[in-house]
Structures are given as structure tokens and as C-alpha cells.
Records
---
Amino acid sequence: MKIRISTIILAMALLTGCNKEQIPTGLLLHDELNTTDTTYMITNIPSAQTKKIFVEEATGVRCPNCPTGADLLRNLEAINPNKIISASIYSPFLNYFQPPAQYDFNNSDDSTLVFFLNNGDPSKPEATIDRLETGGTPKYFFDKTLWSSTIAGILSKSTPLNIDLSATPTGNTDEFLIKSKITFTDTFTAELGISIYLIEDHVVDYQDSMAIAVLNYEHNHILRKIITPISGSSFLSTITTKEKGRVFEKFTTFTLPTMAVLGTSPRGIVNKSNLKLICFVHKTGSSKEVIHVEEIDL
């Protein structure tokens, strides 16, 4: 009897261990950088900003259909000026480095991000749209046939908060002080987080386009670094109701990553003058919905 009970207990322990949710390697749940947070109330509340939509496009240099996705997104941005901000996620699927490509767009943040959002690489081209749920599988990545209708359905939404973003050189080489200022122009109750992305535009390199090698393709919105934790930096978590007039400021000291050469694979920033910062505020509970997003040149 003792042997049987011990066996059952061991089996239950093993089963519990197998069912335990695993945190992907590299997924940061707290800020590693030097940050300072502060909050206060104001009475002279600014006008609400126009809500912008955040798109995270899963793409790859070895993806023949991905240029059509990039074209569609560029057209949507053109017909909805100042309403859509995007980042290109060059995760490993269909994105292996091989000459004649000059640069390797893979990085660990892209890989960790798709596991956080999708438990692995999605099909390409697909994209998150304000991290709304698709209603199916995958949970957050929409097929490009649904991008136009999904964006059209949320263009008229408003946002209860303003984002003011700035970055100031500290005097140290490639180091910046990033200030993220969140001002609530209406009452809001959900748990929130801030995420900050570093992206690069105008990188000319190889792209497979409908099985034709394009050597001078312009890659834009390349995700270079997620400055905050992958899941975002939670803020005002002790304040259930964020009142109209509540201000939260986050100061983050950040140093630009350098270009690394791994074997014959150059990886990292190509031209510092083409860098931008994206800051977005999103829910952190069972929903990951993006509330608002802003972008600045670095």
C-alpha cells in the first residue's frame, strides 16, 4: 500500500510539473535598466490626443509574400495619416541569414516577443493590431486579409490618456535619458504597462519577393531592441482608478546596442540617424490591448 501511494504521489507531482506554465527564456518581468518613476495630479488637463493604432508586423527576408504585406501596411498608413504606427518583427521563421544579404535582422527580442504573444513564430505576413484578440488561433496575429477591416473598425476609437515621449543625450557615448509621460484625460481602471521599442528605418538589403531576389529592398520599422521588459513595465498598480488629471512619468537611461558580427553575420543598428522610439501603453491583465501609442525620432 505504501508503495502504491508513493507511486500515485510521484505521478501527481510529475503531472503537475508538466502542466506548469513555462516562462520563455529571456522574458524579463521587471526593469533591468536604471529607471525612475513619479506620479502627481494636475488641474489644468490637456486636450485628449488622437488615438493611434499600433501594428506589430511579423515578417522575414526569406518570405516571398512579405513585401505584399509591407505594401499593404504602407498603403493603410498613407490613407490614414498619423493614425497608425508600426514595428517590423523579424523573428527566426523565414528570416535566416545567408549571402547575398548584408545584414542579419534576427535578435533575441524578436524571438522572445513572438513567444510572449503567440507561443512561437506566426505565419508570415501576419500582424497584431492594437494586440486585439483575433477570436481564433493565433490569438493576436491577424492574417493580412483582415488588416484593413480590423483597422477600419477601430479608427474612430478614442484614448483616455496622452503619451508625451522624449529622449535626451546624457553626454555619455550613445546613452539617452528617455522620458515617458502619461497624462490621463479621462478616468481609467484597467491594470496598465508601458513598453518602449527602438526601431530603425531605411535599411537597404536583400529581400525574397515572390521567389525573386531583390538586392536593394528597403526594410523599415525594424525592431532593434525592446527597452522595457517584454511584458511591459507595470505602472500605477496600487491605484485602482486612474483619475482624470493623474500624471505618471517614467525616466529610463538607455545605451544604444552596438553592431555585432557573429561569424559572417553582421547584426544590429546600421545607421543611427534612422532610429526611432515607439512608446505604447497597454493592458497587462488577461487582455494585452494597446490603449495608445506614440513615436519620435531619436
---
Amino acid sequence: MTTSRPGEPSRRPGERGDLLDPCCPTRQLLDRIGTKWTSIAVKVLAEEAPEELRFAELRRRIPGISQKMLSVTLQSLARDGLVARRVEPTVPPAVHYRLTELGLSLERPLSALRVWAETHMQEINRSNQLADESPPS
């Protein structure tokens, strides 16, 4: 059995994609979740799972994010089925967010990426510093 959408190449389940192809599942996922705000929002929501967090509490826990950027990030995560949104009909409405099972399954690979970054960012920063100090060739 192959899986494809109109205009996409056929692919067997589990078959690896080609990162150079815009239809590659890995490339599509990185396009969706590759921002710092997305990975931080997933981490913060995962820390509370399965409980919900209100929008204002999420904003307090994510230093530096604007209200607009948090809203856009959560809308994108909800659209992708990674976050569930619940609105209480109060004045003003109380909006609650939690990770879905699919969203929770994303926390583990993002956590592995954080571990890799914590292990290697000092080395990467040193390399950048050396490159900045070297005369242009």
C-alpha cells in the first residue's frame, strides 16, 4: 500500500523521504515545528500534561513571547492536532490548552534535541567565535 496526496509522489508507510523534496514528511514537520516558540510551547505544555494551561499562564511561562506570537503558535499546533483548545464561555472567555496524545508523542524527540543542544552548543559557539576571529579568506 502506498500513501500519497494529489501531486505528491507515492510512498510506502515507513519509507524514508527525501529532505530535498518539499513533500518529504520530515521536511514538512520541520517547517511546522522548527521554530523556537513551537518547541518551547510543547515543552511547557508537556510539563503540565495531562492538565490544561490557560493562555495567560502559558505566556507567563514563556519569557519573551508576544501575545500575538503565542496565539499564532497555539493556533498552528491546534490545527496540526498537537494541541487541544477549550474555551469557557465567560466574560472574557477563558481559553485552555493541553497537548493531545499526538502532541505528547512529539515531546520525546524534542527533548532529545534539547539534550543534544545542551551537549554541543558550547562547541558550536566556540567554532563561531573562531570563525569570527579569523581573517576573511
---
Amino acid sequence: MYAIFVTINVKAENVEEFGEASFGDAEGACRDEPGCFRFDINRDPEIPTRFYLYEVYRDEDAFQAHLEAPHFLAWREKVSAMFDGEFEKVVMQTVFPSESGWEAQKPGLLNW
């Protein structure tokens, strides 16, 4: 599986709006993208303007499809001016759960 960990710093005045917009992207990815197996949004408790995204996709092609999805394009348009500096992205390959484990968890992504 193809995973990314993204660190995004947001301008203080945009923290709440960024969180709401990001929820829409995560919800759309989990609901509408068969190749998305995880989309976590976390906020740093010590630096409240810093968010961490952890996303897992079937492969890089599924991630590239995410970048063209309507919910992602809407998110990017809405939040790009909210960034405080450049974001950082780390690309990873998952080790556990197994690919079949990720597949088995997919239906549970819609239980929010």
C-alpha cells in the first residue's frame, strides 16, 4: 500500500475553517475513492495551527486519482491560501496491516 504523512501549518485565523474543509476532503476520499483505505486528520496539541494527515491508498495511481477527485480539488482551492509556509510530505509503504487487512477495514471507514 502507498501511504503519505503530511504536515501542514495553517494561519491562526484559519484553523477552524481549515479543519472543516479538510473533513470534507477526508470524507469524500473514504466514501468515493475505492483506492483510499485511510484518511486521518490530526492536530498538534502543542501547536494548534499544525495539522497532520495520514492517508493510505492502494497504490500511487490511487493517490494520483485522489489528486484529481472533485472533493480534493475543492479542498485545495479553499485551503491553499490558509497555509503558513510549505507543507511537508513523507511517502511510505505500509507494513501492517497487510493488503488484505486494509481491504477488510475499508467498509468501516464510512462509520463516522
---
Amino acid sequence: MNIVLDTNVLVAGLLSPFGPCGKIVRMVSSGELTFSLDARILAEYEEVLCRPKFKFEKDKVIALLDHIQHRGLTVASSPLFQPLPYPDDEPFLEVAIAARVVCLITGNRVHFPSDLCQNVRVLSPSEFMAFYK
């Protein structure tokens, strides 16, 4: 199953491996889920994971990003017809549309108004786990 994983889900899954976000990250790591990304998403992952407040070790972040880049599907996307309320989220929706993913998983569903999502299913981590079962 091909998905797009918002940064907040990745971070939450690394910080708390036992909740829905942690399960999703483990499913991605094991190859059970395939995820799509582009250079902008990878750069955001790196910038956020390297923030001092998370206290992730730099070498482990680099190893994770290498794994993500190797296992993920890199896609080329087109700009959205209409901007999202939060422009930093646009790469995630653009990639989801271009890759024709099953869903975009985010902790911030309100950042992705359904009328702008061009039929991309946007789910919270809990909703995704219920959907996946």
C-alpha cells in the first residue's frame, strides 16, 4: 500500500513507538507500507528530526533518512491548482496526487481541506489504522 507520511506522524512514531504513529512507522520500516516522497519532503524530515528539542542523534537521523530515501518512492509532482492554508504542507499533497497514493497520513487533517485535496484520502494515524484493518 502506497502512502504519504506527514512529518508530524514520523516524529510522533519515533518518539512514541507504541501508539498508532509508532505502528505506522514500524510498518513503513518493515516494508509493509510503501511511501512516496520528493526532495522537499526529505529535506523537511531532516530539518525537523535534527531539531535539538527532539534529541535524536545526528548519525541515527542520517541512517534513517538514507533508509527512507532507499525504501521510498521518489516522485515528481506538479504544483497545486489552489494553495493550501498552510503552504508548508503542499509538498505532501502534491506528492500524494502525483503518486496516486491510497492516503496521506497526518496529525493535522485540518491543514488539508477536502475541497482542495483532489480526491486524496487524508487520514489521521488512528483513522489509518482502522482503515488498514
